[in-house]
Amino acid sequence: MTGWTEYIAAWACFLGAHMIPALPGPRGWLVARLGRRGYLAAFSLLSIGLLYWLILAAGRAPYVHLWDQPGWSRWLVNIAMPAAILLGSLAVGMSGLVAALALWAGSHLVANGDLAHAVFFGGMGVFALSGVARSGLPGAFRVTWQRLLLAVVIWAALLHLHPLVIGVSPLPA
Question: How far is CA 96 from CA 125, 132, 161, in A?
Fold first, then answer.
């Protein structure tokens, strides 16, 4: 499976994995069998795996140029990402995570000027903003040195692993 077919299949699996458990029946059945923590762990791992597949599929889709990538766009991403990681790490509840994902998607949308990535980051932005609409903006933060350290470690890992995992350096040229 290659090109647009893989990309569409990855989107279908990602969206299905997030829509089906949102229904009361399947989610209740899964929580009853796995327990709340087991369900959340399994759902998180599945989501990360499907997100990674979707990222790779976007990179393998045929290149269709939409706009030039301005040089400042990588600076935008490199400023937005530490803020997004801090937001996701320090906010209490899911509202911080979905707000961080919206910031991630919006900043990456500007820096990627091809059709597959515009659909990917635009779609993820809509997906995240729908989560913000449901949960609201973060209202409470738990600031501890452990959470701050975790945010720094996540940021450093993403920055350094991006070329190996995604195939593109996030650093400005």
Answer: 14, 9, 23
